[in-house]
Amino acid sequence: MVLASDQAYRKCIDSRLSFDEGRRLYRLQFQALGTACSVLFALEDRPRAIAFSDAAVEWVGVFEGKYSRFLDTSLLSEVNRKAGEDWVQVDEDFEHLLALCDDLNFMTHGQLDPSGMPLIGLWDYRRKRSELPSPEEISVAKSLVGWQKVQRRPGEVFLPEKGMCLDFGGFGKEYAVDKVAGLAVEYGIGNCLVDFGQDIHVLGTPPDSPAWHIGLEDPTRPGTTWTGLALLQGGGVATSGDYHRNFVLGGKRYGHIIDLSTGYPVANGLLAVSVVARSCLEAGVLSTAAFVAGPERGAELMEANFGAEACFVSEHSNYQTSRFYEYVVQS
Questions:
Q1: How far apart are the first and last CA of the chain?
Q2: Is 288 labelled a binding residue?
Q3: Residue 236 near residue 280, CB atoms below 8 Å
Q4: What is the DSSP string of 207-270?
Q5: SS3 of 141-206
Q6: How big is the chain by its Cα radius of gyration, in Å?
Q7: Is the CA virtual torsion 169, 120, 106, 144 positive or negative?
Q8: Are 184 and 267 contained in the same domain?
Q9: Taking a C-beta distance cutoff of 8 angstroms, is the pair 180, 54 a contact?
């Protein structure tokens, strides 16, 4: 028996899934994780295409429901509420993400720090403000930041100071992109492009082209592209920049990406950093870390991560690592 609620869900999924006869590609579109999500994939079997779409939307929904700090009902919000008060029981999946945070914090020399929310929130670009945060406010916020402060024991986690806050936003969307790409493989899909708000993972190639073509947005003219990339063998692409999310005060622009070592928004002349890497997660965290580090130190970071290539874009020039050009579509 099919319940009315099941029929409504089925109609909802079908409305999200379309098929492009010309390109021979399915397109799944939905909203999640605060952005537009799109999955392009090639598959001859429509029932399997529907089953994959169901599974992808469901997985992302569960992930967001569990780890979004914007949802009061999430497990992450419970951890944050109990900061300075008590330990919180977490499951194996949550512990896996905390272990992943260890690796990403090390890989980015501390720039990827899920405990950085006190500083990030202090500089929230969406606030209406007449003055900048004071040095005292910045000092207090900095004192609450530090991944090494987070206490863990099997099945539990504890934030030892009131005001501490975890946020997986620095890598969660990219992690989800890679997981959906992995889910596609489980459903026998070898040619796929997963795009969650321009965080991308590709598999194989599209039926109508020898490569997936990905445009890079021009930070000096948002909404347009300044170049395109061609990915032939899979991998991830991500861009970090502050040209969309920022505020202006006293004639100076302050972006949303915070240098946690200083407590202030990054101001090194960069507008965006685009990275191609083996996964979307790697591309995303490296692009943010490189944006903070700047072209010279950022290039060194790329050199230390095999297979990662980057392009650093400023107002007047751009700089590419040694093999980034191999991905650029030649006009």
A1: 56
A2: yes
A3: yes
A4: TTSSSEEEEEE-TTSTTSEEEEEEESS-EEEEEEESSSSEEEETTEEEES-EETTTTEE--SSE
A5: HHHCCCHHHCEEECCEEECCCCCCCCCCCCCHHHHHHHHHHHHHHHCCCCCEEEEECCEEEEECCC
A6: 21
A7: negative
A8: yes
A9: no
Tell which of 108, 123, 158 closes a domain: 158
CB-based contacts of 288, cutoff 8 Å, min separation 6: 108, 111, 112, 170, 240, 257, 273
Distance, CA of 19 to CA of 41 (rounded, Å): 10
Q: Tell me whether residue 163 is in a domain.
A: no
Q: Show the tokens assigned to 159.
A: 């934030």
262 assigned to some structural domain? yes
| 199 shares a domain with 138 | no
What the block records as the tokens of 274 is: 């685009």
Mean pLDDT, each 10-residue run in order, the chain (331 residues): 42 73 94 96 96 97 97 98 98 97 94 95 91 96 97 98 96 98 98 97 95 94 92 93 90 93 94 97 97 92 93 90 90 56
Is 65 annotated as ligand-binding? no
Distant-in-sequence, close-in-space partners of 322: CB < 8 Å, separation ≥ 6: 309
What is the span of the domain harbouring residue 258? 11-65+171-327
pTM of the model: 0.93
